[in-house]
Design brief:
Blueprint: E1 2-3, E2 6-7, H1 22-31, H2 40-70, H3 86-98, H4 102-115, H5 120-127, H6 133-142, H7 148-158, H8 167-181, H9 183-194, E3 198-203, E4 209-214, H10 217-232, H11 242-254, E5 285-286, H12 289-292, E6 300-302, E7 306-308, H13 310-318, H14 328-331, H15 346-356, E8 372-375, E9 390-393, H16 395-401, E10 407-410, E11 416-419, E12 425-428, E13 431-432, E14 437-438
Antiparallel strand pairs: 1-2, 3-4, 5-6, 6-7, 8-9, 10-11, 11-12, 13-14
Length: 449
Protein backbone atom coordinates (compact mmCIF):
# COMPACT_ATOMS: atom_id res chain seq x y z
CA UNK A 1 0.00 0.00 0.00
CA UNK A 2 1.00 3.67 -0.44
CA UNK A 3 1.08 6.19 2.41
CA UNK A 4 2.35 9.70 1.70
CA UNK A 5 4.11 8.42 -1.42
CA UNK A 6 6.07 5.87 0.63
CA UNK A 7 5.70 2.19 -0.20
CA UNK A 8 4.92 0.24 2.97
CA UNK A 9 5.67 -3.46 2.60
CA UNK A 10 4.09 -6.11 4.85
CA UNK A 11 6.51 -7.67 7.32
CA UNK A 12 8.35 -10.76 6.17
CA UNK A 13 6.66 -13.88 7.53
CA UNK A 14 8.98 -15.92 9.73
CA UNK A 15 8.66 -18.68 12.31
CA UNK A 16 8.78 -15.94 14.91
CA UNK A 17 5.70 -13.99 13.77
CA UNK A 18 3.38 -16.69 12.37
CA UNK A 19 0.10 -17.12 14.25
CA UNK A 20 0.31 -20.27 16.38
CA UNK A 21 -1.95 -23.24 15.72
CA UNK A 22 -1.82 -26.99 15.49
CA UNK A 23 -0.77 -26.74 11.85
CA UNK A 24 1.93 -24.26 12.82
CA UNK A 25 3.23 -26.89 15.23
CA UNK A 26 3.74 -29.22 12.29
CA UNK A 27 5.46 -26.44 10.36
CA UNK A 28 7.83 -25.86 13.27
CA UNK A 29 8.55 -29.56 13.51
CA UNK A 30 9.47 -29.84 9.85
CA UNK A 31 11.44 -26.57 9.82
CA UNK A 32 13.61 -27.60 12.78
CA UNK A 33 14.23 -31.25 11.89
CA UNK A 34 17.71 -30.23 10.79
CA UNK A 35 18.65 -27.35 13.09
CA UNK A 36 22.21 -27.35 11.77
CA UNK A 37 20.98 -26.00 8.44
CA UNK A 38 19.28 -22.96 9.99
CA UNK A 39 20.92 -19.54 10.14
CA UNK A 40 21.37 -17.73 13.45
CA UNK A 41 18.38 -15.50 12.70
CA UNK A 42 16.22 -18.52 11.81
CA UNK A 43 17.19 -20.25 15.05
CA UNK A 44 16.06 -17.17 17.02
CA UNK A 45 12.78 -17.08 15.08
CA UNK A 46 12.23 -20.79 15.70
CA UNK A 47 12.77 -20.30 19.44
CA UNK A 48 10.15 -17.51 19.39
CA UNK A 49 7.84 -19.75 17.38
CA UNK A 50 8.00 -22.54 19.94
CA UNK A 51 7.33 -19.99 22.72
CA UNK A 52 4.25 -18.77 20.87
CA UNK A 53 3.10 -22.34 20.27
CA UNK A 54 3.45 -23.16 23.99
CA UNK A 55 1.34 -20.07 24.82
CA UNK A 56 -1.33 -21.19 22.34
CA UNK A 57 -1.42 -24.65 23.93
CA UNK A 58 -1.71 -23.14 27.44
CA UNK A 59 -4.68 -21.01 26.32
CA UNK A 60 -6.43 -24.01 24.77
CA UNK A 61 -5.80 -26.02 27.93
CA UNK A 62 -7.30 -23.21 30.03
CA UNK A 63 -10.46 -23.31 27.91
CA UNK A 64 -10.70 -27.08 28.41
CA UNK A 65 -10.20 -26.83 32.19
CA UNK A 66 -12.79 -24.07 32.52
CA UNK A 67 -15.33 -26.12 30.58
CA UNK A 68 -14.62 -29.22 32.68
CA UNK A 69 -15.09 -27.44 35.97
CA UNK A 70 -18.13 -25.53 34.81
CA UNK A 71 -20.22 -28.56 33.87
CA UNK A 72 -22.98 -29.62 36.22
CA UNK A 73 -23.37 -33.09 37.67
CA UNK A 74 -25.99 -34.05 35.12
CA UNK A 75 -23.95 -32.83 32.13
CA UNK A 76 -22.00 -34.88 29.68
CA UNK A 77 -19.43 -35.60 32.39
CA UNK A 78 -20.97 -37.79 35.07
CA UNK A 79 -20.51 -36.76 38.69
CA UNK A 80 -19.28 -39.19 41.33
CA UNK A 81 -22.71 -39.19 42.93
CA UNK A 82 -25.83 -37.09 42.83
CA UNK A 83 -24.91 -35.64 46.22
CA UNK A 84 -21.44 -34.50 45.11
CA UNK A 85 -21.51 -31.82 42.38
CA UNK A 86 -18.69 -31.84 39.85
CA UNK A 87 -17.18 -28.61 41.18
CA UNK A 88 -16.25 -30.28 44.46
CA UNK A 89 -14.14 -33.03 42.94
CA UNK A 90 -12.88 -31.36 39.78
CA UNK A 91 -9.55 -30.44 41.41
CA UNK A 92 -9.01 -34.03 42.56
CA UNK A 93 -9.66 -35.37 39.05
CA UNK A 94 -7.43 -32.77 37.35
CA UNK A 95 -4.71 -33.15 39.98
CA UNK A 96 -4.48 -36.88 39.31
CA UNK A 97 -4.61 -36.42 35.54
CA UNK A 98 -1.85 -33.77 35.45
CA UNK A 99 0.22 -35.28 38.28
CA UNK A 100 -0.04 -32.19 40.48
CA UNK A 101 -1.31 -31.67 44.01
CA UNK A 102 -4.95 -30.95 44.75
CA UNK A 103 -4.06 -27.39 45.77
CA UNK A 104 -2.16 -26.77 42.55
CA UNK A 105 -5.08 -28.15 40.56
CA UNK A 106 -7.46 -25.82 42.42
CA UNK A 107 -5.32 -22.84 41.43
CA UNK A 108 -5.11 -23.98 37.80
CA UNK A 109 -8.90 -24.37 37.63
CA UNK A 110 -9.49 -20.97 39.24
CA UNK A 111 -7.12 -19.34 36.75
CA UNK A 112 -8.80 -21.13 33.84
CA UNK A 113 -12.23 -19.99 35.01
CA UNK A 114 -11.10 -16.36 35.26
CA UNK A 115 -9.35 -16.52 31.89
CA UNK A 116 -12.60 -17.72 30.36
CA UNK A 117 -14.50 -14.90 32.05
CA UNK A 118 -13.39 -11.39 32.94
CA UNK A 119 -9.80 -12.09 31.87
CA UNK A 120 -10.76 -13.44 28.45
CA UNK A 121 -8.75 -10.64 26.69
CA UNK A 122 -5.66 -11.95 28.45
CA UNK A 123 -6.45 -15.47 27.25
CA UNK A 124 -6.90 -14.15 23.72
CA UNK A 125 -3.38 -12.68 23.81
CA UNK A 126 -2.12 -15.99 25.19
CA UNK A 127 -3.84 -17.96 22.43
CA UNK A 128 -2.41 -15.62 19.82
CA UNK A 129 1.09 -16.33 21.13
CA UNK A 130 1.65 -12.71 22.11
CA UNK A 131 1.82 -13.42 25.85
CA UNK A 132 3.59 -16.38 27.44
CA UNK A 133 1.91 -18.47 30.13
CA UNK A 134 4.11 -17.12 32.96
CA UNK A 135 2.94 -13.56 32.24
CA UNK A 136 -0.70 -14.62 31.79
CA UNK A 137 -0.46 -16.40 35.15
CA UNK A 138 0.98 -13.23 36.65
CA UNK A 139 -2.10 -11.29 35.50
CA UNK A 140 -4.30 -13.92 37.13
CA UNK A 141 -2.32 -13.84 40.38
CA UNK A 142 -2.21 -10.06 40.73
CA UNK A 143 -5.93 -9.67 39.99
CA UNK A 144 -7.09 -12.71 41.97
CA UNK A 145 -8.39 -10.68 44.93
CA UNK A 146 -10.03 -7.92 42.85
CA UNK A 147 -13.69 -7.97 41.88
CA UNK A 148 -14.52 -8.38 38.20
CA UNK A 149 -15.13 -4.66 37.58
CA UNK A 150 -11.78 -3.59 39.00
CA UNK A 151 -9.96 -6.55 37.45
CA UNK A 152 -11.32 -5.62 34.02
CA UNK A 153 -10.23 -1.99 34.46
CA UNK A 154 -6.68 -2.99 35.47
CA UNK A 155 -6.50 -5.47 32.61
CA UNK A 156 -7.61 -2.83 30.08
CA UNK A 157 -4.87 -0.49 31.31
CA UNK A 158 -1.93 -2.92 31.21
CA UNK A 159 -2.75 -5.30 28.39
CA UNK A 160 -1.80 -3.10 25.38
CA UNK A 161 1.86 -2.92 26.46
CA UNK A 162 2.06 -6.42 28.00
CA UNK A 163 3.31 -8.31 24.90
CA UNK A 164 6.46 -6.17 24.82
CA UNK A 165 7.21 -6.41 28.55
CA UNK A 166 9.20 -8.87 30.62
CA UNK A 167 7.64 -10.57 33.63
CA UNK A 168 9.12 -7.96 36.00
CA UNK A 169 7.99 -5.03 33.85
CA UNK A 170 4.46 -6.40 33.59
CA UNK A 171 4.44 -7.01 37.34
CA UNK A 172 5.34 -3.36 37.96
CA UNK A 173 2.68 -2.21 35.49
CA UNK A 174 0.02 -4.33 37.20
CA UNK A 175 0.92 -3.06 40.66
CA UNK A 176 0.91 0.54 39.46
CA UNK A 177 -2.46 0.13 37.74
CA UNK A 178 -3.97 -1.40 40.88
CA UNK A 179 -2.65 1.50 42.97
CA UNK A 180 -4.01 4.04 40.48
CA UNK A 181 -7.47 2.50 40.11
CA UNK A 182 -7.99 1.42 43.71
CA UNK A 183 -6.01 3.79 45.98
CA UNK A 184 -8.23 3.19 49.02
CA UNK A 185 -7.96 -0.57 48.65
CA UNK A 186 -4.20 -0.25 48.10
CA UNK A 187 -3.80 1.67 51.35
CA UNK A 188 -5.84 -0.93 53.24
CA UNK A 189 -3.84 -3.79 51.71
CA UNK A 190 -0.57 -2.06 52.62
CA UNK A 191 -1.66 -1.64 56.25
CA UNK A 192 -2.62 -5.30 56.37
CA UNK A 193 0.66 -6.41 54.79
CA UNK A 194 2.66 -4.10 57.04
CA UNK A 195 1.13 -5.76 60.10
CA UNK A 196 2.68 -9.02 58.90
CA UNK A 197 6.29 -7.76 58.96
CA UNK A 198 8.58 -10.34 60.48
CA UNK A 199 11.95 -12.08 60.32
CA UNK A 200 12.34 -15.79 59.66
CA UNK A 201 15.06 -18.33 59.01
CA UNK A 202 15.03 -21.23 56.56
CA UNK A 203 17.40 -24.18 56.57
CA UNK A 204 19.57 -24.59 53.49
CA UNK A 205 22.08 -27.11 52.22
CA UNK A 206 25.78 -27.55 52.97
CA UNK A 207 25.51 -25.98 56.40
CA UNK A 208 23.90 -22.75 55.10
CA UNK A 209 20.59 -21.05 55.88
CA UNK A 210 18.56 -18.08 54.68
CA UNK A 211 17.69 -15.20 57.01
CA UNK A 212 14.51 -13.64 55.61
CA UNK A 213 12.85 -10.36 56.57
CA UNK A 214 9.50 -8.91 55.49
CA UNK A 215 9.80 -5.11 55.68
CA UNK A 216 8.22 -2.09 54.05
CA UNK A 217 9.77 -1.43 50.64
CA UNK A 218 11.53 1.83 51.71
CA UNK A 219 12.99 0.17 54.83
CA UNK A 220 14.25 -2.78 52.79
CA UNK A 221 15.77 -0.57 50.08
CA UNK A 222 17.39 1.72 52.65
CA UNK A 223 18.78 -1.21 54.67
CA UNK A 224 20.35 -2.76 51.60
CA UNK A 225 21.82 0.57 50.47
CA UNK A 226 23.35 1.20 53.92
CA UNK A 227 24.77 -2.33 54.09
CA UNK A 228 26.33 -1.78 50.66
CA UNK A 229 27.93 1.47 51.83
CA UNK A 230 29.41 -0.30 54.83
CA UNK A 231 30.71 -3.10 52.61
CA UNK A 232 32.34 -0.65 50.21
CA UNK A 233 33.80 1.20 53.18
CA UNK A 234 35.99 -1.83 53.97
CA UNK A 235 38.19 -0.80 51.06
CA UNK A 236 39.33 -2.36 47.81
CA UNK A 237 42.09 -4.27 49.58
CA UNK A 238 39.48 -6.52 51.25
CA UNK A 239 39.69 -9.82 49.29
CA UNK A 240 36.00 -10.69 49.76
CA UNK A 241 33.38 -9.98 47.12
CA UNK A 242 30.82 -7.28 47.80
CA UNK A 243 28.15 -9.95 48.41
CA UNK A 244 30.40 -11.72 50.91
CA UNK A 245 31.14 -8.47 52.73
CA UNK A 246 27.44 -7.63 53.01
CA UNK A 247 26.65 -11.08 54.38
CA UNK A 248 29.54 -11.03 56.88
CA UNK A 249 28.71 -7.51 58.09
CA UNK A 250 25.04 -8.36 58.57
CA UNK A 251 25.91 -11.44 60.60
CA UNK A 252 28.50 -9.55 62.67
CA UNK A 253 26.09 -6.72 63.51
CA UNK A 254 23.13 -8.96 64.36
CA UNK A 255 25.21 -11.33 66.52
CA UNK A 256 26.84 -8.52 68.49
CA UNK A 257 30.37 -9.12 67.19
CA UNK A 258 30.47 -5.67 65.59
CA UNK A 259 29.18 -2.31 66.80
CA UNK A 260 28.71 0.47 64.28
CA UNK A 261 29.83 3.96 65.21
CA UNK A 262 29.66 7.28 63.41
CA UNK A 263 32.75 8.30 61.38
CA UNK A 264 33.96 10.86 63.95
CA UNK A 265 33.87 8.38 66.81
CA UNK A 266 35.48 5.73 64.64
CA UNK A 267 38.53 7.86 63.79
CA UNK A 268 40.57 6.36 66.63
CA UNK A 269 38.83 2.99 66.66
CA UNK A 270 40.02 0.38 64.18
CA UNK A 271 37.22 -2.03 65.07
CA UNK A 272 34.31 0.10 63.92
CA UNK A 273 33.17 -0.03 60.31
CA UNK A 274 32.75 3.26 58.47
CA UNK A 275 30.45 3.58 55.45
CA UNK A 276 31.97 4.63 52.16
CA UNK A 277 29.79 7.77 52.32
CA UNK A 278 28.18 9.09 55.53
CA UNK A 279 24.62 10.20 56.03
CA UNK A 280 21.35 8.46 55.32
CA UNK A 281 21.28 5.95 52.46
CA UNK A 282 19.93 7.48 49.26
CA UNK A 283 16.68 6.01 48.03
CA UNK A 284 14.75 7.61 45.19
CA UNK A 285 10.98 7.91 45.39
CA UNK A 286 9.12 9.53 42.49
CA UNK A 287 6.01 11.27 43.81
CA UNK A 288 3.59 13.43 41.79
CA UNK A 289 3.23 16.86 43.37
CA UNK A 290 -0.53 16.35 43.69
CA UNK A 291 0.08 13.17 45.69
CA UNK A 292 2.70 14.81 47.88
CA UNK A 293 0.26 17.56 48.83
CA UNK A 294 -2.58 15.12 49.42
CA UNK A 295 -4.71 16.31 46.51
CA UNK A 296 -4.94 12.75 45.19
CA UNK A 297 -3.53 9.26 45.75
CA UNK A 298 -1.79 8.62 42.44
CA UNK A 299 0.70 5.73 42.62
CA UNK A 300 4.33 6.54 43.34
CA UNK A 301 7.56 4.80 42.36
CA UNK A 302 10.36 3.54 44.58
CA UNK A 303 13.25 3.30 42.13
CA UNK A 304 14.66 -0.21 42.06
CA UNK A 305 11.48 -1.67 43.57
CA UNK A 306 8.49 -0.40 41.64
CA UNK A 307 5.11 1.17 42.47
CA UNK A 308 4.22 1.90 46.10
CA UNK A 309 0.99 3.29 47.63
CA UNK A 310 0.62 7.05 48.06
CA UNK A 311 0.23 6.54 51.81
CA UNK A 312 3.68 4.95 52.06
CA UNK A 313 5.30 7.56 49.79
CA UNK A 314 4.02 10.40 51.99
CA UNK A 315 5.48 8.65 55.04
CA UNK A 316 8.86 8.55 53.31
CA UNK A 317 8.50 12.21 52.35
CA UNK A 318 7.97 13.20 55.97
CA UNK A 319 11.44 11.87 56.87
CA UNK A 320 13.46 12.69 53.77
CA UNK A 321 15.58 15.31 52.09
CA UNK A 322 14.04 16.06 48.71
CA UNK A 323 15.74 16.89 45.46
CA UNK A 324 13.54 18.29 42.74
CA UNK A 325 14.30 16.81 39.32
CA UNK A 326 12.46 18.64 36.57
CA UNK A 327 12.99 19.34 32.92
CA UNK A 328 15.32 21.95 31.49
CA UNK A 329 12.79 24.82 30.93
CA UNK A 330 12.04 25.01 34.66
CA UNK A 331 15.55 24.72 36.10
CA UNK A 332 17.87 26.04 33.44
CA UNK A 333 19.98 22.90 33.91
CA UNK A 334 22.54 22.56 31.15
CA UNK A 335 21.77 19.35 29.28
CA UNK A 336 24.38 19.65 26.53
CA UNK A 337 28.11 19.96 27.17
CA UNK A 338 29.30 19.14 23.66
CA UNK A 339 32.95 18.12 23.54
CA UNK A 340 34.02 20.15 26.59
CA UNK A 341 33.87 17.19 28.96
CA UNK A 342 33.64 13.40 28.80
CA UNK A 343 32.22 12.77 32.26
CA UNK A 344 28.62 14.10 32.63
CA UNK A 345 28.34 16.74 35.38
CA UNK A 346 26.08 15.89 38.33
CA UNK A 347 23.01 17.82 37.11
CA UNK A 348 23.12 16.18 33.69
CA UNK A 349 23.71 12.73 35.20
CA UNK A 350 20.74 13.21 37.54
CA UNK A 351 18.56 14.23 34.61
CA UNK A 352 19.47 11.21 32.46
CA UNK A 353 19.01 8.75 35.33
CA UNK A 354 15.65 10.30 36.25
CA UNK A 355 14.62 10.12 32.58
CA UNK A 356 15.56 6.46 32.14
CA UNK A 357 14.79 5.05 35.65
CA UNK A 358 16.31 1.67 34.69
CA UNK A 359 18.99 0.29 32.38
CA UNK A 360 17.91 0.94 28.80
CA UNK A 361 18.60 -2.59 27.56
CA UNK A 362 15.43 -4.51 26.63
CA UNK A 363 14.08 -6.34 29.66
CA UNK A 364 16.66 -5.05 32.18
CA UNK A 365 15.26 -3.45 35.34
CA UNK A 366 18.51 -2.58 37.11
CA UNK A 367 17.97 0.90 38.64
CA UNK A 368 19.58 3.72 36.68
CA UNK A 369 21.05 5.00 39.96
CA UNK A 370 23.44 2.02 39.93
CA UNK A 371 24.06 2.09 36.16
CA UNK A 372 26.81 3.66 34.08
CA UNK A 373 26.07 6.52 31.69
CA UNK A 374 26.95 5.52 28.16
CA UNK A 375 27.72 7.76 25.18
CA UNK A 376 25.59 6.17 22.43
CA UNK A 377 27.82 7.77 19.82
CA UNK A 378 31.29 7.20 21.35
CA UNK A 379 32.84 10.38 22.74
CA UNK A 380 36.10 9.40 21.12
CA UNK A 381 36.39 10.49 18.38
CA UNK A 382 33.36 12.74 17.86
CA UNK A 383 30.50 11.98 20.30
CA UNK A 384 29.05 14.69 22.54
CA UNK A 385 28.24 14.74 26.25
CA UNK A 386 24.57 15.68 26.28
CA UNK A 387 21.11 14.43 27.12
CA UNK A 388 20.62 13.49 23.47
CA UNK A 389 23.63 11.13 23.48
CA UNK A 390 23.55 9.58 26.97
CA UNK A 391 21.65 6.57 28.29
CA UNK A 392 21.82 4.53 31.48
CA UNK A 393 23.26 1.04 31.00
CA UNK A 394 24.16 -1.53 33.62
CA UNK A 395 27.79 -2.71 33.41
CA UNK A 396 26.81 -5.98 31.71
CA UNK A 397 24.80 -4.30 28.95
CA UNK A 398 27.32 -1.48 28.63
CA UNK A 399 29.92 -4.14 27.91
CA UNK A 400 27.57 -6.04 25.57
CA UNK A 401 27.01 -2.90 23.48
CA UNK A 402 30.73 -2.81 22.66
CA UNK A 403 30.81 -6.38 21.30
CA UNK A 404 31.01 -6.92 17.53
CA UNK A 405 27.63 -7.03 15.81
CA UNK A 406 25.76 -5.07 18.50
CA UNK A 407 24.58 -1.55 17.67
CA UNK A 408 22.52 1.12 19.43
CA UNK A 409 20.91 4.28 18.12
CA UNK A 410 19.16 6.99 20.19
CA UNK A 411 16.27 8.66 18.38
CA UNK A 412 14.92 12.22 18.73
CA UNK A 413 12.20 10.86 21.05
CA UNK A 414 14.96 9.24 23.16
CA UNK A 415 13.84 5.76 22.13
CA UNK A 416 16.92 3.53 22.07
CA UNK A 417 17.05 0.98 19.26
CA UNK A 418 19.22 -2.09 19.66
CA UNK A 419 20.33 -4.21 16.71
CA UNK A 420 21.62 -7.70 17.53
CA UNK A 421 24.20 -9.72 15.57
CA UNK A 422 21.34 -11.74 13.99
CA UNK A 423 19.72 -8.59 12.59
CA UNK A 424 16.80 -8.49 15.05
CA UNK A 425 15.93 -5.03 16.35
CA UNK A 426 14.43 -4.01 19.70
CA UNK A 427 13.34 -0.63 21.07
CA UNK A 428 13.23 0.75 24.61
CA UNK A 429 11.78 4.13 25.48
CA UNK A 430 12.33 6.70 28.18
CA UNK A 431 10.21 6.41 31.31
CA UNK A 432 6.87 8.22 31.32
CA UNK A 433 6.53 9.57 34.85
CA UNK A 434 2.83 10.26 34.32
CA UNK A 435 1.96 6.61 33.75
CA UNK A 436 4.97 4.79 35.16
CA UNK A 437 5.42 2.99 31.85
CA UNK A 438 8.50 2.99 29.65
CA UNK A 439 7.59 3.82 26.06
CA UNK A 440 7.09 3.94 23.23
CA UNK A 441 5.15 0.72 22.79
CA UNK A 442 6.79 -1.28 25.55
CA UNK A 443 10.38 -2.09 26.31
CA UNK A 444 11.11 -4.83 23.81
CA UNK A 445 9.61 -4.84 20.36
CA UNK A 446 11.37 -7.33 18.09
CA UNK A 447 11.27 -6.86 14.36
CA UNK A 448 13.42 -8.13 11.51
CA UNK A 449 15.16 -5.85 8.99
Amino acid sequence: MFDSDVLVLPPEQTLGNTAPSGLFGLELEFATESVGSLSDAELVDAAVGFERLAAWAAARQAAVLAEFQGRSGDGSVRAVSAAVPLREWASDEIGMALTVSRGTAQVRLAQARRLSGVLRPTRDLLEGGRLCWSRARLVCDRLALLDDTLAAAVQDRVLPAAPGQTWAQLDAALRRAILALDPDGAAARHRSARAERRVDVFAGEDGMATLWARLTAPDAASSYAWLTRLARGLGSEDPRTLDQRRADLLAAVLTGRLVLRDPAAAAADTVAVVPVTPGKPLITVLVPHSTLTGADDAPCELVGYGPIPALLAREVAADAVWRRLVSDPLTGTVLEYGRTTYRPPAALADHVRARDITCRAPGCRRPAATCELDHVVPWDPDGTTGEDNLVALCPAHHDLKEHPGWQTELGPDRALEWTTPTGHRYRTGRHDHRTGVSGPGGRARPRRP
